[in-house]
Predict the structure.
Amino acid sequence: MKKPLFYLIMVILTLLIGFLIFGNQEHQPLTEQEIQKLSQTFGDKFSEMRKSQQNDQPSSNKINTPEPKVETQNTQAIIGVIYKKQGSTWFIKAKDNQQRINQITEKFKQYFLTNLKFDDNQQPQFDHLPKDAKSGSKSSMRYATFMIDGIEVSVINLPGDQDTFSNVKRWMGQVGLNEKSPISMQFLDDKSTIFVKMPK
């Protein structure tokens, strides 16, 4: 139904009801039941016309809300161990996409947490690692580099008692996490060993 015709009918119905209720004083006033019946009829007619108007709208005017698209993102993740030793702090870390980090989690924990020992000089001993895990890649900051199933593991030693939380926060920034993002931190050996996995 076109809008002008719709509004014209609405005006006529409104005037008709007003006239029946207030317009002719010579006739007997309408009872309350009759007024309610007229109001109900008016309301029903209004609803029918509104529905008809909506159905008559061209399809080009209808708003089609597209279904939200689920985007697959390459979520980055980190797994690491921090060792706070006398005079220095060790950081052992692997970074890759989350699926690959999850795949090496148990092996990483076995190599660098469960079976890793330190000598009397507080130096880590990596003799238990398989030969194919060792890598000759080094940098000025790295003590050593290893490979686990194609994922690089860096070993860094910094002097003194380093601020653990500042370093963990820096790691979070490397994988796009913020301070409210869920991560896992396990404090072991009287809090001198911290196992970190992010996201949780």
Q: What stands out?
A: The longest helix spans residues 32-55.
